[in-house]
Write a structure and sequence with these properties.
The complex is a heterotrimer of chains A (352), B (109) and C (170). With 352 residues, chain A is mainly alpha-helical. Chain A contains 13 helices and four strands. Chain A has one domain. In chain A, β1 and β2 form a beta hairpin. Chain A is globular, with a radius of gyration of 22 Å. Chain B has 109 residues and is mainly alpha-helical. The longest helix of chain B is centred in the last third of the chain and has 31 residues. The mean pLDDT of chain B is 84. Chain C has 170 residues and is mainly α. Chain C starts with a helix and ends in a 9-residue tail after the last helix. In chain C, α1 runs antiparallel to α2. Classes of the chains: A mainly alpha (352), B mainly alpha (109), C mainly alpha (170). Chains in contact: A-C, B-C. At the B-C interface, α1, α2, α3 and α4 of B face α1, α2, α3, α4 and α5 of C. Chain B: GO terms for molecular function: oxidoreductase activity. Chain B: It comes from Adhaeribacter terrigena. Chain B: It is found in: Cell membrane; Membrane. Chain B: NDH-1 is composed of 14 different subunits. Subunits NuoA, H, J, K, L, M, N constitute the membrane sector of the complex.
Chain lengths: 352, 109, 170
C-alpha cells in the first residue's frame, strides 16, 4: 500500500519537474515560460503527456526491435525501483501500531540503492546500441564510461559517511541525525561532519543523473540527441521521465545521508509543546517531518535546475580528469581523514 | 529473528550441488564451443559464479560465514581479472582487428 | 511457495546461462549473462545472504558487465561475423561438456552433502555486521592482499591500454 503511494508521489513530482524545469529556465533567462495550458500553465505536463502518447511510435528499420523497446523501459524501471527504500518519514502511530512511512526497511538499503543506480546505465546503453546509429552509440559509450568512473568516487565518498554511521540502513542513518547540534535538536546533520564528502557526492550525483554540466551522453551540439537520437513519442518520454525520477531519488538520498532526512531543527521542542497527547504529538511531528523532507527534496531539485541553466558543459577529457584525478583522490583523502578523526576523537575532545 | 529460511528447510543441499554443476558445465561447454575471446571470458565468469553459488549455499546450510567471505574474495579477484583481461582483449583487437582466439595460435605474430 | 520460487530461479539460471553460450550476437550474450547474475542473486536472497546478493549485483551486473558491454560496443563486435568452428569440433565440444556433466552428476549423485542442523543454526550470518566481523578479524591479511592485487591490476590495465607511439587509431 505504502509502496504504491510512494511510486505515485514520485511520478507526480517527476511530472511537475518538467514544468518546474521550464519555468526555472524561463526565470533565469528572463522569459515567462509555459503559461497557456491552465492557470500559470499548470496543465502543461498533461498537455505534454497527451502529445507524447499520440505521436507516432517509430522504430528505425535497422534497429534491434526488442532491445529498442527494452531500453527506455529498463531506464524507467530502474529509476522507479530505487525510491522503495527511502524513508520519507518517521513512524505514524495508528491504533497503537507503528507504521513506517517507507516502502521497505532493509539493513542493506544503501547497497540496494547503489545496485539499482548501477543498473540504470543499461537502459541508456541498450537503447543507444539498439538504435543502430553512430551518434546513439557514441552517447551510450559516453554514458557507460561516465557512470563507471563517477560511481567509484560516489562509493568512496559514502564510505567515510558509513564509517561514522556504522549502518547501511537509510532509516538508521536518518535517526542518528536527530540529535542536538548547537543546542537545537534534530540538527545533528552529517553535512557538518562530512562537508567534503557531500561536495564529492553532489558532483557525482550530477554525473550519474546525466545532468548539465555532465550531460555528455545527450549533448546536442556534438551528438544530436545522444542515446535518444532515434527515439520518439512515449519511448523518448520514458527516457526524459526516468531522468527526472533519478533526480528525485538522488535528491532524496542526499537529504537522507547529509541533511538529516525527516529531522528538522527544534523537533524535540515541537514534540513537547504541540499537543498534550503523546501519540498525537508524535504523529504531528512525523507529518511535519514528511513535509520538511519533501521541502529538502524540492530544494535539491531546484538546485539541479539552477545549475543546469548556469554552468556550461564539460569537455569529455575534462570530465574524465575531474572524475579520476581529482574526485577519487579527494574521496580517499576524506576516508583517511574521517578514520583519523574517529580514532582520535576522545583526545580531540579532551583538548578543547 | 533467527528462524531457518524456508528454502533451507525444504530444498536438500544436493539440489544446489546439481544446479551449480550444471552451470559450471555450461561454462565449460561455452569455452570449448566459441571462438570469440570475449564470449570465452564471459563463460569463465559463468564458471566462477557456479562456484560462488555453491560456496554460499554450503555456507548458509552450515551457518558458517567463512564461505561467504571466500565468495567476497572471488568477486574481488574476478573484478581484477576482468580489468586486465579486457585490456588484453582490446590490445589483441588493435593488433589483429579481431578477437578470434584461433588467430592467436602462433606464439609470435 | 518458496520451493516454486527456487525451481523457477534454477530454470532461469540454466536457461539464461545456456543462452550466453548459444546466442550468436555478443551483446545478447552479455544481456543473458546479466540475467544469470540476477537469478543467482535471487538464490542468495533465498539463502538469506543479503550482503552478497547486493554485492553480486553491484560488482558483476553493475561494473563488470558494463565493462564487457562497453568493450563490445567500443570494438564494434556486434556484427555476427564470428567465424564458426567446423561442425565436427562443435560436436566434440558439446559431447565433452555432456560427458563432464554426466561424470559430475554420477559422482555427486550418492554424495551425502549433509543438511542443516536445527540447533545452533544462525540465519544472520549473511548480514553485513557478521561478515564484516569475520572479514576484518580472520581474513585481514587476504583483504589487504586483495587491495594490492587491485593496484597491480589497475597498473597493468593502464599499461596495456596505453597507445604505443606511432600506433594508428582505429
Amino acid at each position: 500500500m505504502i509502496i504504491l503511494g510512494i511510486f505515485g508521489i514520485t511520478l507526480l513530482i517527476a511530472t511537475y519537474c518538467t514544468y518546474a524545469e521550464r519555468k526555472i529556465a524561463a526565470f533565469i533567462q528572463d522569459r515567462i515560460g509555459p503559461n497557456r495550458a491552465g492557470p500559470f500553465g499548470l496543465a502543461q505536463p498533461l498537455a505534454d503527456a497527451v502529445k507524447m502518447f499520440f505521436k507516432e511510435e517509430f522504430i528505425p528499420a535497422n534497429a534491434h526491435k526488442f532491445l529498442f523497446v527494452a531500453g527506455p523501459s529498463l531506464a524507467m524501471l530502474t529509476a522507479c525501483m530505487s525510491s522503495a527504500v527511502i524513508p520519507f518519514g518517521n513512524t505514524l502511530i495508528i491504533n497503537g501500531n507503528h507504521i513506517r512511512v517507507q516502502g521497505i526497511e532493509t539493513n542493506i538499503g544503501l547497497l540496494y540503492i547503489f545496485g539499482v543506480v548501477a543498473l540504470g546505465v543499461y537502459g541508456i546503453m541498450i537503447g543507444g546500441w539498439a538504435s543502430n546509429n553512430k551518434f546513439s552509440l557514441l552517447g551510450a559509450i559516453r554514458a557507460a564510461s561516465q557512470n563507471i568512473s563517477y560511481e567509484l568516487a560516489m562509493g568512496l565518498s559514502i564510505i567515510a559517511l558509513l564509517m561514522m554511521s556504522g549502518s547501511l540502513s537509510l532509516r538508521q542513518i536518518t535517526l542518528q541525525q536527530g540529535g542536538e547540534f548547537l543546542g537545537l535538536s534534530g540538527l545533528d546533520w552529517n553535512i557538518f561532519y562530512q562537508p567534503l564528502g557531500f561536495i564529492i557526492f553532489l558532483t557525482c550525483a550530477f554525473a550519474e543523473t546525466n545532468r548539465t554540466p555532465f550531460d555528455l551522453p545527450e549533448c546536442e551540439t556534438e551528438l544530436i540527441g545522444g542515446y535518444h537520437t532515434e527515439y520518439s513519442a512515449m519511448k523518448l518520454g520514458l527516457y526524459l521521465f526516468a531522468e527526472y525520477v533519478n533526480i528525485i531519488v538522488v535528491s532524496a538520498v542526499m537529504s537522507v545521508l547529509y541533511f538529516g532526512g525527516f529531522n528538522f531543527p527544534g523537533q524535540d521542542w515541537v514534540r513537547a509543546n504541540i499537543a498534550s497527547d503523546p501519540t498525537l504529538a508524535h504523529n504531528l511531528v512525523t507529518i511535519l517531518g514528511i513535509v520538511v523532507f519533501f521541502g529538502k527534496i524540492f530544494a535539491f531539485i531546484f538546485f539541479f535546475m539552477w545549475v543546469r541553466w548556469t554552468l556550461p558543459r564539460f569537455r569529455y577529457d575534462q570530465l574524465m580528469r575531474l572524475g579520476w584525478k581529482i574526485l577519487i583522490p579527494l574521496a580517499i583523502m576524506n576516508v583517511v581523514l574521517t578514520g583519523a578523526a574517529i580514532l582520535f576523537w576522545p583526545q580531540l575532545k579532551a583538548m578543547f | 529473528m533467527n528462524e531457518i529460511p524456508e528454502v533451507i528447510r525444504t530444498i536438500p543441499l544436493n539440489y544446489y550441488l546439481f544446479l551449480s554443476t550444471a552451470l559450471f558445465v555450461i561454462g565449460v561447454t561455452g569455452v570449448l564451443l566459441r571462438r570469440n575471446a570475449i564470449i570465452i571470458f564471459m563463460c569463465i565468469e559463468l564458471m566462477l559464479n557456479a562456484v560462488n553459488l555453491l560456496l554460499v549455499s554450503f555456507s548458509a546450510y552450515r551457518s558458517d560465514p567463512n564461505g561467504q567471505v571466500f565468495v567476497f574474495f572471488i568477486m574481488a579477484v574476478a573484478a581484477a581479472e576482468v580489468c586486465v583481461g579486457l585490456a588484453i582483449i582490446v590490445m589483441i583487437y588493435r593488433n589483429l582487428q579481431s578477437t578470434d582466439v584461433h588467430l592467436l595460435n602462433k606464439l609470435k605474430w | 511457495m518458496i520451493q516454486n520460487v527456487f525451481y523457477f530461479l534454477c530454470f532461469l539460471t540454466l536457461i539464461s546461462g545456456s543462452m550466453v553460450v548459444f546466442s550468436r550476437n555478443p551483446v545478447y550474450s552479455v544481456l543473458f549473462l546479466i540475467l544469470t547474475f540476477f537469478s543467482i542473486s535471487g538464490h542468495y536472497i533465498l539463502l538469506n545472504a543479503q550482503f552478497l546478493a547486493a554485492v553480486n549485483i553491484i560488482v558483476y551486473a553493475g561494473a563488470i558487465m558494463v565493462l564487457f558491454l562497453f568493450v563490445i560496443m567500443f570494438l564494434n563486435l556486434n556484427k555476427e561475423n564470428e567465424t564458426h568452428k567446423s561442425n565436427l569440433s562443435k560436436f566434440a565440444a558439446v559431447i565433452a561438456g555432456g560427458i563432464l556433466l554426466v561424470i559430475m552428476v554420477a559422482a555427486l549423485k550418492d554424495v551425502d552433502a549433509g543438511t542443516y542442523k536445527a540447533e545452533g543454526f544462525d540465519s544472520q550470518i549473511g548480514m553485513v555486521q557478521n561478515l564484516g566481523m569475520v572479514l576484518f578479524k580472520n581474513y585481514l591479511l587476504p583483504f589487504e592482499l586483495a587491495s594490492v592485487l587491485f593496484l597491480v591490476a589497475m597498473a597493468g590495465a593502464v599499461m596495456l591500454g596505453k597507445k604505443e607511439t606511432g600506433e594508428r587509431h582505429f
